[in-house]
């Protein structure tokens, strides 16, 4: 299956196909210099497969984890391209999860004011969400993704076969982003999770989640309005992530719960529990609240948050810090 992100001259194909990693040489334009970025938690054969299809590959393996989304690692990627004599006609290809994708995309956007970028996500979380949409970024002073630009990839290859090497916890974390898509815009997708069909037919669930994000990005590429609904679960979730060190998808799982109406929450919690995702966490609510207020989504004394009052629909609301502080205690327990 191929979805087309319709963004005029910034449009691109999203290939969703088992085994498409092995077809990288025909699906991507790699007859040039290519910086292939991966991390030390990704099976090395995935980057080797892409490198084998390149005319002149330079493979860089960074440490896995959020700490790699930093200026020193970004500088390392830019320096490697400069040393290898990359020109504006060359490209960057990410082979890894969201950290690798966000960092590599920013490096591609900055080098010589922008060169082509391809994304080959290897985690369910990145396949379902961050691999498309054009957000790039690194962290600064403990604040996630506060430095970055909007820059769309040239093509995205999503190969569910690569997920076979992921541990169950990483798979569960990825499901959180797909559940999110169902809650905000696709009631049928959420129903697949309630019946257990989503886990049995992951390709369908993944494709439907990507279709939700594609439609939103096409209408609001640079997050001036509608695209903010994709932050459902992230406002509280980012605060929890900063304090606890849980996986991003686990924090999204926690962050969705307080932003659902009670009737939706009653349907959501059993789904999350069956997937192996957390529905509460031990942490200091004050520290979570402080981290949340430093997030880029908090501004002007009010916090814009996304509320789901019925499955498949959502709305943006403006909350006072005090109101959001109360919601945190729904899932954060001392």
Descriptive overview:
This protein has two domains: 2-165, Rossmann fold (3-Layer(aba) Sandwich); 168-333, Dehydroquinate synthase-like, alpha domain. The chain has a seven-stranded mixed β-sheet with strand order 1-2-9-6-5-3-4, sandwiched between helices. The protein has 14 helices and 14 strands. The chain starts with a strand and ends with a strand. It has 334 residues and is α/β, with parallel strands linked by helices. α3 (71-83) crosses α4 (98-110), α6 packs across α9 (202-219) and α6 (168-185) packs parallel to α11.
Properties at a glance:
Rossmann fold, Dehydroquinate synthase-like, alpha domain, three-stranded antiparallel β-sheet, globular, 44% helix, alpha/beta, 334 residues
Topology (elements, then pairings):
Elements: E1 2-5, E2 12-16, H1 24-27, E3 33-39, H2 44-52, E4 56-62, H3 71-83, E5 91-96, H4 98-110, E6 116-121, H5 124-130, E7 138-140, E8 143-147, E9 155-158, H6 168-185, H7 187-195, H8 197-200, H9 202-219, H10 234-244, H11 248-256, H12 262-275, E10 281-282, H13 285-293, E11 298-299, E12 302-310, E13 313-319, H14 321-328, E14 332-333
Parallel strand pairs: 2-9, 3-4, 3-5, 5-6, 6-9, 10-14
Antiparallel strand pairs: 1-2, 7-8, 11-12, 12-13
Helix pairs in contact: 3-4, 5-6, 6-7, 6-9, 6-11, 10-11, 10-13, 13-14
What is the CATH H-level superfamily of the largest domain? Dehydroquinate synthase-like - alpha domain
Low-confidence blocks of residues: none
CATH top level class name of the largest domain:
Mainly Alpha
Q: What distance lies between the first and last C-alpha atoms, to the nearest angstrom?
A: 46 Å
Structural class: alpha/beta
What is the H-and-E element order? Answer: EEHEHEHEHEHEEEHHHHHHHEHEEEHE
Summarize the main sheet.
7 strands, mixed
β-strand amount? 15-25%
The CATH architecture designation of the largest domain is: Up-down Bundle
Level of helix content?
Answer: 40-55%
Indicate the CATH topology of the largest domain. Dehydroquinate synthase-like, alpha domain
Work out the number of β strands: 14
Total of domains: 2
Rg for CA atoms = 19 Å
Envelope shape: globular
Widest beta sheet: strand line-up: 1-2-9-6-5-3-4
Number of helical elements? 14
Mean pLDDT: 93
